[in-house]
Amino acid sequence: MKIDLSGQTALVTGATGELGRVIVRTLAESGADIALHYHSNETKAAELKNVVEALGRRAVAVQADVTKQDAVQALKQSIETSLGHVDIVVANAVAQYKWTSVLEQPAEDYASQFDSCVMQSVYLAKAFIPGMIERKGGRFIGINTECSMQNFPSQSAYVAGKRGMDGVYRVLAKEVGEHQITVNQVAPGWTISERERTNGIAESSDYIRNVPLRRRGTDQEIANAVAFLASDLASFITGAYIPVNGGNVMPAI
């Protein structure tokens, strides 16, 4: 068996980010054409488009604020003009902010997390799932986090946004399953990315002490899980929250 996404088009939001870039490359290596969403890093988006095209796949880079419904609809139109319909949606973009305690966290940080985790997913669903229903199939994948199960101090805004996102995905999976559309979430742990490989990997002894596999995962390992869920190999998996973190958190029954 192999992951074969030939003939499929995937949209990856936040494509220019550390994890987004690896997801894009992995999906392209699996045969998918790629719609690269970016918010502000146009230079990196252009570089990534060249990477995808060098792999023999079609690609388009589209700027949008995915926390705005009209911008997501415009994103959809741009993609369809260049590549046609989207078969795979990967909601990877998320707003960045400084973490602190509930008492000190600015209220706007909670709003930004709600917008970038919950509303991004809602707007993407409204834009792309109707077409998947017409075609009787599709993949809708969200990047969640192990933090949703940890609830550690200073994580409140992030956890609130990602837990809200989790609720949307679980309900959506039940609403669209009859159309052979799967809706799943990948939940990374503290992941080693290209930035750390370049600048030095952070000390992680306290973290890995509680990880059964006794190491941190890599961006490629997260991307592999996304590619699997995007493929026909995962055709009977939906409504899942899948930690990719060496067992650091384990959902219970």
TrEMBL record:
**UniProt keyword annotation of DNA repair present:** no
Q: What is this protein called?
A: SDR family oxidoreductase
Q: What does the record give as the organism's lineage?
A: Bacteria, Bacillati, Bacillota, Bacilli, Bacillales
For this chain, the family text in UniProt reads:
Belongs to the short-chain dehydrogenases/reductases (SDR) family.
Keyword Hydrolase (UniProt): no
Q: Which domain of life is it from?
A: Bacteria
Q: Which GO terms describe its biological process?
A: bile acid metabolic process
Q: Which UniProt keywords apply?
A: Oxidoreductase
Checking Pfam families in the record gives: adh_short_C2 (PF13561)
Name any one GO molecular function. Answer: oxidoreductase activity
